[in-house]
Design goal:
This protein has eleven helices and eight strands. The chain is α/β, with parallel strands linked by helices. Bound molecules: 2-phosphoglycolic acid. The site of 2-phosphoglycolic acid (PGA) has 13 residues, from β8.
Length: 254
């Protein structure tokens, strides 16, 4: 797995409407240093994607969405096709986020089909996996993460120039959370994900086509620590990406 440019993916969730999204995109574009060492990806809500892209285009910052549907086109009222996201400027899409697993009851099968559809549309899927606090306490964290990774990715077809990102996001560490995770604990789980990928795909594919990133209350104080871990290519940032100052501070901390 490459360590070249860390991926910093901003997940704006459903926290910002159109005016705030456009303002934040402007502020980030203005505030980002010319020598910024990261590949920044911003994932606004669907409604703001095209206008945020108008601002970001040409800046080197890339665009991502927070979900897509598992079919390309058809009678699926309210859903958004990966192909439309690609047309809107997206190169990435977050899939299987724990908030969607919880509130939208997304299943492993739905997530697997979305991953395939994203790849078909030439989007880079960011597949979120991670255990809840109760699952960790029961000693099931490895089981949960192996199972989610396996179910999301087994049988997936992709081209050799495509990338699939697995984001380890322990549900109990997502903000606001009273708990924090040490980089060493995240590292242990990244090794579990890495070994799972090796069970599913040949080693050269795991090396060339997969990246593992971490998410869960990451900010300027700890981003560099997570990125320094072995087999770790970046971070998925929620809260700290939703204000220009905290996000620019994070980028400057790398
Ligand atoms: P957080 O969110 O950084 O606010 O914990 C991360 C995520 O849910 O993707």
């Amino acid at each position: 797995m490459e360590h070249v440019k860390p991926l910093i993916i901003a997940n704006w969730k459903m926290q910002l409407g159109m005016p705030e999204s456009l303002q934040l995109a402007q502020d980030i574009k203005k505030g980002i240093s010319k020598n910024n060492p990261a590949q920044v990806v911003i994932c606004p809500s669907f409604i703001s994607l095209t206008k945020v892209w108008d601002i970001l285009k040409g800046s080197g910052i890339e665009l991502g969405a927070q979900d897509c549907f598992w079919e390309e086109q058809g009678k699926f009222t309210g859903e958004v096709s990966a192909v439309y996201l690609r047309e809107a400027g997206c190169r990435y899409v977050i899939l299987g986020h724990s908030e969607r697993r919880e509130h939208l009851k997304e299943t492993e099968e739905m997530i697997r089909k979305k991953v395939q559809q994203a790849l078909n549309a030439d989007l880079t899927p960011i597949v979120c996996v991670g255990e809840t606090f109760e699952q960790r306490q029961e000693g099931a964290k490895d089981y949960v993460v192996i199972n989610q990774t396996t179910q999301a990715l087994s049988g997936i077809k992709f081209n050799l120039d495509q990338t699939i990102i697995v984001a380890y996001e322990p549900v109990w560490a997502i903000s606001p959370s009273p708990y924090t995770i040490m980089p060493s604990e995240a590292d242990e789980m990244h090794q579990v994900i890495y070994r799972t990928l090796l069970d599913l795909f040949p080693p050269t594919m795991v090396k060339n086509n997969f990246k593992i990133i971490f998410g869960g209350s990451v900010d300027a104080s700890d981003a560099a620590g997570f990125i320094a871990l072995e087999n770790t290519s970046g971070v998925l940032v929620g809260g700290a990406s939703q204000k220009a100052k905290s996000f620019i501070d994070l980028l400057n901390s790398l």
